[in-house]
Design brief:
By secondary structure, the chain is an alpha+beta fold. The chain contains 14 helices and 12 strands.
Length: 469
């Protein structure tokens, strides 16, 4: 589905205005940092702009200690204060409860706490390292203009990285929560699920579609996934340019209602009521720092992390080729899938080895194991269901290529009739509304009216930069 270019333009104006403000408050940045080590002087050592945060590295003059000040970028982050609170709570939980290396939180504050006028902020220790996502990229672009995993990387190098990431996933999976939602840090330095899950998808729905979804705490996976299905229907209804033609409107309406019908069949009965596990939507090589020997020095960017259905944890990693499966080109889909499966087999073998190692240390082994659940997730298409559930803009692409025939192939005649006007009496009215939305959108955009009978083939991709800040 295309993004709303009018909304993106407004957000871009917000970002540019913030950038202008940033350029005028240089000295105030150091003053903000110096508040926390009792007035010690520092200077700006480096600047980096990532997908969602602008990062300023400062270095203290007396001892050379380096910190990073991270500011959510207006126009990129739709819920900046909620984002900072959830990220701080998550990072402190991981730092205290696990052996995973995350930046130490020095201080944070909301907009009212920041005299620079730049909004909420987070200050952490600077962790040295190279972003893993920059190392294994291909030297050339694919036919969609994206860099993907080089084919000349030795399996031995991948195994070094996979082994460490497997340990991280296993360690996160050992911590249980009784609800689905974002972590909150209580006044007594304990944690609770204080709000609904702040997901990357909810941010992008607001940023790219001007669709705001209500977030709440969930007690079952089924309620959460059914709410996601409802949100996708709401997205189609509310984003003005969510369709490109009347036939496209019918096709997208059909996909979302069939996706909603299929959702209960993808809920794990065993884990429906928990326990729920910490899960990060943006866990990828671009947010992993490594040294020259590929040893992980730290994991950054935990803003889209929340207690999620356990079945999200045992969905195979989407980042194995760097480029997410939802955005593989259909012309090269089978080739990429074959490459993905070969890398996944290496990852699962390593994961099994680490499971056995942990069992030898702790005497405990999960039954069924995480590796076996990952294999099952790919076989029963739960992997693809999760990919669609976690990215509203890619739902149509995934549903029609991966889920429709799997879920309804044996009853094709019935599934075709589900959204006929006589069965779904709201369909014709929906199409009429959406065509009027599109007409108004194009009028405001200044684009000449042109309706065709074809489908929407101009899907935008949520192209997150591989820089991980």
């Amino acid at each position: 589905m295309d993004f709303d270019d009018l909304v993106l333009s407004r957000h871009d104006n917000d970002r540019l205005a913030w950038n202008q403000k940033l350029s005028l408050v240089g000295p105030a940045i150091c003053q903000l940092a110096s508040k926390f080590p009792d007035g010690r002087l520092c200077y700006v050592a480096d600047l980096k702009c990532g997908s969602f945060n602008f990062c300023i590295k400062v270095q203290f003059k007396d001892d050379g200690v380096e910190w990073v000040l991270r500011f959510p970028i207006p126009g990129k982050v739709m819920f900046p204060e909620q984002k900072v609170r959830a990220e701080v709570a998550t990072m402190r939980y991981i730092a205290e409860k696990t052996d995973i290396s995350v930046p130490t939180v020095i201080a944070y504050g909301m907009a009212d706490d920041n005299p620079t006028g730049l909004g909420p902020f987070l200050i952490t220790i600077f962790i040295k390292g190279t972003l893993l996502g920059e190392i294994p990229k291909a030297d050339s672009l694919d036919d969609q203009g994206d860099k993907v995993l080089r084919n000349d990387i030795p399996d031995s190098t991948l195994e070094v990285v996979y082994r460490q990431i497997a340990d991280i996933i296993l360690e996160l999976s050992e911590h249980d929560f009784d609800q689905i939602g974002s972590l909150s840090l209580n006044d007594d330095d304990t944690w609770s699920i204080g709000s609904g899950p702040l997901t990357l998808n909810s941010n992008e729905l607001s940023r790219c579609g001007n669709v705001h979804v209500e977030s709440r705490v969930y007690s079952t996976t089924s309620d959460y996934l059914l709410d996601i299905a409802e949100q996708n229907i709401l997205h189609l209804e509310k984003q003005r340019n969510s369709i490109s033609s009347s036939s496209d409107a019918r096709r997208k309406y059909t996909a979302r209602h069939l996706f909603q019908s299929a959702a209960p069949s993808f809920v794990s009965g065993k884990y429906n009521q928990g326990p729920f596990k910490l899960f990060c939507d943006d866990f990828r090589p671009g947010n992993i720092l490594v040294d020259d020997s590929f040893k992980i020095t730290g994991i950054i960017d935990w803003e889209w992390c929340y207690a999620a259905p356990f079945q999200f944890t045992y969905s195979p990693p989407r980042w194995l080729l760097l480029k997410e499966p939802a955005y593989w080109n259909s012309n090269s889909d089978n080739d990429l899938l074959g490459t993905y499966l070969s890398k996944l087999e290496i990852f699962l073998r390593i994961l099994e080895e680490q499971e056995n190692h942990r069992q030898g240390v702790t005497g405990h082994r999960a039954d069924p194991s995480l590796s076996s659940l990952m294999r099952r997730s790919l076989v029963d298409n739960t992997f693809w269901f999760h990919e669609a559930a976690r990215d509203s803009f890619a739902l149509d692409r995934i549903y029609w290529s991966r889920l429709d025939s799997f879920c309804f192939g044996s009853i094709r005649d019935r599934s075709d009739s589900i959204c006929r006007a006589d069965n779904h009496k709201g369909l014709n009215a929906f199409v009429d509304r959406k065509m009027e939305h599109l007409r108004q959108y194009k009028l405001e955009l200044g684009v000449e009216e042109k309706y065709d009978a074809g489908g929407d083939i101009g899907d935008h991709r949520n192209r997150l930069e591989q820089t991980g800040f």
